[in-house]
Design brief:
The protein contains 21 helices and six strands. By secondary structure, it is an alpha/beta fold. The strands form two sheets. It has a four-stranded mixed beta sheet with strand order 3-4-5-6, sandwiched between helices. Helix 2 runs antiparallel to helix 10 and helix 9 packs across helix 20.
């Protein structure tokens, strides 16, 4: 136990150093004061750390939710944000009690990567303006379109603006991150690159007395707490829908992160329903406190594991250190330039926008890459929830297509014989086409049905073939199907069929846990910031239905 305590203490300090600058930067990106993110860190560390379903996962504000929070504030105002987070938390608690934790992990990797890349584009575009001490625009498209103009103003000082000063400080911050991460000394990398960059940028800005914006924190952290005032808003359907959307995205992000954490160590395994309930409790409290929403976050969790954490004590203590800092010496944080924190998130957005994943997705078919790009574009052009739902709908449509698509090819090698080749899925949806192919066989022909490329056949299709066989034999014909070979083939190929044809769909939570390592690797690691090397994560697959053995009245 003493050894475990020592390791947990060290890990908690490292996680604290990682979480501090990120919490303030994510708050600014969300359109909230830095204190809101710090409160979420404290709640996520102390409260959720005590009851979480994965003791080594660290919870707090996430860059992935900053886009949703910003949109909610723009549409409904900060006063109603607490109600939305409260609804999201209640949704997560109910989902956890209903034991739906595993289902939240069943999301197509194309949609997950499209979501993360879309978030990356939005974060990069909005925080580019904050790096110049300018306010971001109301929409993602607006931020993208305004980048050239903001860039031009940065170098045009004739109008009296000094946006080049915070801009250069932001560039300086990113260069320090890149330099620190490129150092060959592994022991030095225990200190997070983001912390080093923000500290150096803060010292430089203070010494040079730069005229730029700095972080604002109240003298008393508890004065930043703001409970919802108009409780009648909890029945507003627009806010309910916003809360459900926020809860869904936060749950998917948390459980994907938990799955990756399970892959990084063997000490504990995630209890997904308990973790989902714990996140709900944390978000209910954050909603009541007027803070940011929380998720389980992969970067802090991976840092926690790499630093040697053994128990949940490390996550709890990291929240305690943040609480002590903001209560005892908040003046230290007021020296931090907002442009340095925004630059940290610009780099985060760049890392999230991982277009290299298209090459990986193409291994499972061009349709997966198309779903990724459509999801990304829908998020940037509309909003996060609409984009994610678009991707999910496309994945479901692809699933329906694959399990309803049947290729039928008929040949007549000689005047007495017909060959019928079936490929894909023979289901009741294709009965009319299959019946038409069978009815086109001459009455006296010997029909050979080839099922080697068939992935699935349902009872309705088999029953129709058997009924047709009786009629065909009565007219002098014959049906030849090697049912024994068919049964053996499906026994041998069942696992292969799942991994090949249906791994493209990415809708099964079991495969998600097995393959998250290869498909969602970089986006998950970049989910909060580019602080550490990539960690592994997953892809999904669906299960194929078995094909029955030889029917009792089959033909030879």
């Amino acid at each position: 136990m003493p050894g475990s305590l020592h390791k947990d203490l060290l890990a908690s300090v490292v996680v604290f150093l990682v979480a501090l600058p990120l919490a303030m930067g994510i708050s600014i990106a969300s359109g909230m004061p830095p204190a809101a993110g710090l409160i979420t860190c404290i709640v996520g560390g102390i409260l959720v750390g005590c009851i979480s379903g994965n003791p080594l996962q660290v919870s707090g504000p996430a860059a992935g939710l900053s886009v949703i929070v910003y949109e909610i504030i723009q549409e409904h105002g900060i006063a109603r944000l607490g109600i939305v987070i409260l609804i999201a938390g209640i949704f997560q608690m109910v989902a956890g009690l209903a034991r739906t934790g595993q289902w939240f992990r069943a999301v197509s990797p194309a949609v997950v990567n499209g979501m993360l890349s879309g978030i990356g584009v939005l974060i990069l575009a909005s925080q580019f303006h904050v790096t110049l001490d300018d306010a971001p625009k109301a929409t993602g498209i607006g931020n993208l379109v305004a980048i050239p103009e903001a860039f031009f103003k940065c170098f045009n000082t004739a109008d009296g603006t000094n946006s080049h000063v915070p801009g250069l400080l932001g560039v300086f911050t990113i260069l320090i991150i890149l330099l620190w991460e490129s150092l060959p000394f592994k022991k030095l990398k225990v200190i997070p690159s983001a912390l080093i960059a923000v500290v150096i940028a803060t010292v430089a800005a203070t010494i040079m007395r730069l005229d730029i914006n700095h972080v604002t924190l109240p003298d008393n952290l508890f004065s930043a707490l703001s409970m919802p005032k108009n409780w009648s808003d909890i029945g507003n359907w627009n806010l309910i829908l916003e809360g459900l959307g926020l809860g869904f995205v936060a749950s998917a992000e948390t459980l994907l992160s938990a799955s990756a954490v399970d892959r990084m160590q063997t000490m504990v395994r995630t209890k997904y329903d308990k973790e989902l309930f714990a996140q709900g409790v944390g978000n209910v409290l954050c909603g009541l406190a007027g803070a940011l929403p929380m998720t389980g976050v992969i970067v802090r969790s991976s840092v926690n594991i790499q630093a040697g954490a053994q128990t949940r004590l490390s996550a709890i203590l990291h929240g305690c250190w943040i609480l002590i800092l903001v209560l005892c010496c908040p003046f230290v944080l007021r020296y931090v330039p907002t442009s340095a924190l925004a630059a940290l998130l610009v780099y985060t957005g760049y890392k999230l926008t991982n277009f290299k994943i298209i090459k990986e997705l193409k291994k499972y078919g061009n349709s997966e890459a198309a779903i990724y790009l459509i999801t990304l574009c829908a998020i940037v052009c509309t909003d996060l929830l609409t984009g994610v739902l678009t991707g999910v709908v496309l994945s479901v449509l692809k699933l329906l297509y694959i399990f309803s698509h049947l290729e039928i090819k008929s040949t007549a090698p000689n005047p007495e014989k017909t060959e019928l080749y079936l490929k894909g899925a023979a289901t009741f949806l294709n009965l009319p086409r299959l019946a038409e192919a069978l009815d086109s066989v001459p009455a006296s022909h010997e029909l050979h049905v080839h099922l080697e490329d068939l992935d699935y056949v349902d009872h309705a299709s088999l029953d129709m073939i058997m009924s047709w066989e009786q009629s065909h034999k009565a007219n002098g014909g014959a049906l030849v199907i090697d049912w024994g070979t068919l049964g053996a083939m499906f026994r041998d190929r069942r696992r292969g069929a799942r991994e090949a044809a249906q791994a493209q769909l990415g809708l099964n939570a079991m495969e998600l846990e097995e393959n998250l390592v290869n498909i969602v690797k970089q986006p998950l690691d970049a989910l909060e910031a580019a602080l550490e090397p990539s960690h592994d994560g997953a892809t999904p697959a669906t299960a194929a239905a078995p094909v029955p053995e030889k029917p009792p009245h089959s033909a030879n």
